[in-house]
Amino acid sequence: MTDLSAISDALAAQAIELPSWAFGNSGTRFRVFGTPGTARDPYEKVSDAAQVHRFTGLAPTVALHIPWDEVDSYADLARHAEENGVRLGTVNSNTFQDDDYKFGSLTHSDPRIRRKAIDHHLRCVDVMDATGSRDLKIWLADGTNYPGQDSIRARQDRLAESLATIYARLGEDQRLVLEYKFFEPAFYHTDVPDWGTSYVQTAALGDRAMVCLDTGHHAPGTNIEFIVAQLLRLGKLGSFDFNSRFYADDDLIVGAADPFQLFRILFEVIQGGGYANPDVAFMLDQCHNLEAKIPGQIRSVLNVQEATAKALLVDLDALRAAQEAHDVLAANAVFMDAYNTDVRGALAAWREERGLPGDPMAAYLASGYQDTIEADRVGGTAASWGA
Amino acid sequence: MTDLSAISDALAAQAIELPSWAFGNSGTRFRVFGTPGTARDPYEKVSDAAQVHRFTGLAPTVALHIPWDEVDSYADLARHAEENGVRLGTVNSNTFQDDDYKFGSLTHSDPRIRRKAIDHHLRCVDVMDATGSRDLKIWLADGTNYPGQDSIRARQDRLAESLATIYARLGEDQRLVLEYKFFEPAFYHTDVPDWGTSYVQTAALGDRAMVCLDTGHHAPGTNIEFIVAQLLRLGKLGSFDFNSRFYADDDLIVGAADPFQLFRILFEVIQGGGYANPDVAFMLDQCHNLEAKIPGQIRSVLNVQEATAKALLVDLDALRAAQEAHDVLAANAVFMDAYNTDVRGALAAWREERGLPGDPMAAYLASGYQDTIEADRVGGTAASWGA
Amino acid sequence: MTDLSAISDALAAQAIELPSWAFGNSGTRFRVFGTPGTARDPYEKVSDAAQVHRFTGLAPTVALHIPWDEVDSYADLARHAEENGVRLGTVNSNTFQDDDYKFGSLTHSDPRIRRKAIDHHLRCVDVMDATGSRDLKIWLADGTNYPGQDSIRARQDRLAESLATIYARLGEDQRLVLEYKFFEPAFYHTDVPDWGTSYVQTAALGDRAMVCLDTGHHAPGTNIEFIVAQLLRLGKLGSFDFNSRFYADDDLIVGAADPFQLFRILFEVIQGGGYANPDVAFMLDQCHNLEAKIPGQIRSVLNVQEATAKALLVDLDALRAAQEAHDVLAANAVFMDAYNTDVRGALAAWREERGLPGDPMAAYLASGYQDTIEADRVGGTAASWGA
Amino acid sequence: MTDLSAISDALAAQAIELPSWAFGNSGTRFRVFGTPGTARDPYEKVSDAAQVHRFTGLAPTVALHIPWDEVDSYADLARHAEENGVRLGTVNSNTFQDDDYKFGSLTHSDPRIRRKAIDHHLRCVDVMDATGSRDLKIWLADGTNYPGQDSIRARQDRLAESLATIYARLGEDQRLVLEYKFFEPAFYHTDVPDWGTSYVQTAALGDRAMVCLDTGHHAPGTNIEFIVAQLLRLGKLGSFDFNSRFYADDDLIVGAADPFQLFRILFEVIQGGGYANPDVAFMLDQCHNLEAKIPGQIRSVLNVQEATAKALLVDLDALRAAQEAHDVLAANAVFMDAYNTDVRGALAAWREERGLPGDPMAAYLASGYQDTIEADRVGGTAASWGA
């Protein structure tokens, strides 16, 4: 069994934030299929997220999406979280489901609608104040579908102005993280399409504005670990939205489509000082369209943990020696040796040493929680994306 | 003004089928925005489609989508169409919006669900009998999201069996056209992902099974005109679903994203004998998420007409001479000369000669129809995709 | 250590053909860098290939490329191979490095050049007769760079005619395998761009014409294992050219870019009856531009062996049960369980039981062969691709 | 005929720099085909480039590539250029064809090789001093082929240091432009893969360091006009390398693959103040692998001119009004109206008014120059890329 002793402390430092919306229904433009037992309100979502943490010890916080997760009392929701052993985390804004935003939100040419979108973000900061959240995460659906539809340049300038207004509202311990995305839902141009744009927009704001890297938001063939290395070098990598994809923004379980890519990304995070670094938040952003949601999230955090363990196991001395010698095959072999290692048994033992179940998936399934929610949660509709 | 006399008859032979669903609301998984005046039932959709034909003379038929367009009496709907100057056309099946189809329809491992999906198609043929439609178009959302989820091979065999059952039900003058799509809504594998699969499946059925080519359903960089040439060579190009895309299956207005590609496709259609050939149906399949729907369809058929006119204008003698001489620049110049020609003025005159408005977009806007439907169509919900 | 007893015989049946050109220099359009000790003629290439087999037991045959590997006596070259413990295998034609083929070879509009290209293939069959090779592999660089440059359709028809002439020359135990490629060196259209085209062209020839699938020759995002499943279903998968890629036809070491994809491909090969099936040849087609060539090939065959072992280890009963139950997570978990298994130690033991070195890479490096060839092979130029 | 009077002065301000290497042979890794009459040395290349300017008035300068274009006396070469009616322009460095650069140049881990690469660039600045050139253009082939081969981060830091040393050598009126490229010749990671990297590296250097945008150096689907708008907004767009592509870095004639994209790019250049702006150099970077080189360049500059004329013709008042009203179809129609205009006749007349031939392609072919060089230039080998 692989010896994890040298990396045991590092593993213990891992924390992955769960998205509340992963516990709601989701789908494609063609159909949102329902899944029995799906959470219907923020309280149920938090309860479900707490199960993931209970069985893995990896997921101490839950991200909120406003307005999907609006509640009367955020203090009460925070208390509910704590009672379940977790905390509330990043607050995500949402400016893509109101008719006013059909042609843009923070980039809209109409000052009234821009103001409405800005005000939504200010309310999100109010929520953060109430929940004690540090990060305001902004992903914008803004863009156009047809050449000529709007001015790319004017929208970029309006975006800068809107972001500055929001940034000014942040508290000293709060941050703004700006997510970029290659395309969808806009099909001709997207206002924050790449890391470069997110970088220049956040660099213009100040030190508490950072870039959020969603692993599914790139053009085909993009070397994501390069972007990780570059953003860490620039001190601007604020957070990850982990998921995986075969084609576009498929939002599949992280590590499911290309586990070697996940390993490479985590290796670069570690090398660049981004691991167990509070400045770099690890989050999931996924859609469990077909599979069960709670075990889907458990599988996800375990995938990240396994890839992290492998990335921590790379023999750096041997790697550097081979790199210095320009021995391409030897360097690659050192790298692959860690990737090819089966860490699952050792991680099970490591978990058990910490009072966690060796097999979190089996433990969850045996817990009876799933049966309970499938029986209890009948009726009701969720405020979620397309759900 | 460009002389169209040599191609005037060919232009007059053009007919483009409109999709009823283009007149309903549509959107992305993030949001379906409403548009004032949108049709709410099959009768209103047919009325709207008829406007496109009234102002362009290009769109004499309307395709139906079952069950979105289910009505009590298809004979009555057909009469409504004729009263409005159009006819009912291709019947499209839909096996992607019922919970039973979460894991597949014609490919499902459960015989009960396969039978349900087959029966749905048999009912579609009943509709065709009632409407006098020739073509049953099958696009399947079937596929899987995760490696291992199901057997790729077993699903392909089940597909063949299901299609054979449906094919056996067709009348002598009816056809089955099978559409392929690269990805979405399935993210790991799709059961009919490419023209090769659609070809081998329809070749196994018989002569009345053909391939449907949707111009937005290919991998990045795919040379679509090559596929057109190949399918025409094989006698298996049954129909087009025209639209355009920058990234994935964006379903934008045909010709909007890459007008030169549309020209190349139409040139290959003409060279391969697929133009004004009843075996090769021209259809639109688009989503007007942001723009007005009736003028969006008018713009679409005009784009196809303009590209067709240009493709018909290519000087084939000069082209062949340059090709024979391997004069790459000269051959490309002959090709581009037609593409770079501005045919709009000549087409306006050509239309006016035939009693049509020279500027169909302006004529539609001046007609008052849009104002009327925006005033009249308040309330109601459409059975449409995500609408 | 993983128990390989159930799959031991299957592993023993594996044979991977090596490409002679992998032992020559290669590069990009920007530069072909030299590597010390590189083989300079077919005899040296065969000697090097034999080293791979000597240390792995996996590579009993060597493919030739004509005219790169032209020799005065193929009988003598075959004897040289046997003396080194290997045999000569597939004969690859080459119609891309003669000025006459600037505008095409088997598809050229000039009958004289088509005839020249056909005659080259007939000479390749002569070589096959002399070497006892079964397969003639045809990869064509034919295509065009600019729209209008030539007739896509006419070229396809000429291709069919040329292939038929070549096919007619084959002996009863010989086969023609036609490789497809998405793009490069042609940039607008390629005459055999996809599996569909290779399928319809070889289906028209007869049972001894098959498709060759090069794993690097697809559009971004293509699901290759689907194509494997489909071609096996159709009885037309004749051979693989294994390699890996991040972007285009990078020709990297197989399994280096996406080891999970290699596992999925091999799983589908096994499921479809293509493993240890003489009709489906496993070959490598790679370019070791930067890394040492012999150990590069050793790494490659080991990568295929490891992925094969994992694919053979999938618990099919558990997989089918989960698939039947539509338990997406469970099915995926069974699949990933095999992939995540570290088979390296067990394979080392398995090798040693068969008198092979447990660590073929280390054994090769310790053998002194590399030092010898680096010292001996000074001067001379290779007939190779760009070398 | 289209009225160009309002844009006549703007058209007269256009200048496009030609690459000397476009007049040499080029090809793919598979083959460099020769073309009769191809220039064999820098003097002949300059003479050929001068023909393009003579017949179009669009190409007053020629870019050099060092060491391909090394001569004994740059003053003499500059005089030769002036005698032929053109001037020498940008100096391009080349660190991809020396064995020392197999594993990198400015990013190499060995200080000796880094120094060698830096020194090469300093010598390029010496050439610039001699020729009076303003811009040093750096495109780096640096990167790795295999994960683990080298440290992505360390290479980025070394790149920054190397660039700083080169930048310090520049004169006050000289600039460094850094080109990015998605992939090739490196297949795993490239050290300057995207505009973001080029931006942050040049921003760190100072105001005289700018980004070079090659239109063929992006991932599939990238919206290039967005990058143009962003770089102009940031004041960092230093130059264009124009060409076109269907798949990768195909280096086809600009406007040949997607003329609408070229139009959109030029529209954004104009809107962002980058047109007829000395800070933004227009250059070609193409490979005429199959077609004749001088007429290939004439076609290229004419394509840019035609697209520029169309982009200048966009009715900005109408466009803004439609954009303000969020009338997507109207805004797109204004945009497309300019694109669909046939400006060729008006441009021919505009040229003739300025003493230039109306049809530069025909005039060149009639001039006899091509016959002369095909007869005269026999023998000799060019220092060019792969030539």
Could you describe the 3D structure shown?
- With 387 residues, chain A is α/β, with parallel strands linked by helices.
- Chain A has one domain (13-313): Alpha-Beta Barrel (TIM Barrel).
- The first copy, chain A, has 14 helices and 10 strands.
- In chain A, α2 (42-56) crosses α9 (293-312) and α4 (111-131) runs parallel beside α5.
- The model of chain A has no long low-confidence stretch (mean pLDDT 96).
- At the A-D interface, α5, β7, α6, α7 and α8 of A face α5, β7, α6, α7 and α8 of D.
Domain module count of chain A: 1
Greatest contact pair? A-D, 57 and 57 residues
The share of residues in extended strands of chain A comes to: 5-15%
The CATH architecture of chain A can be given as Alpha-Beta Barrel
The first-level CATH class of chain A is given as Alpha Beta
Write a concise synopsis of the structure shown.
Four copies of one chain form a homotetramer. By secondary structure, the first copy, chain A, is an alpha/beta fold. Helix content of chain A is 44%, strand content 11%.
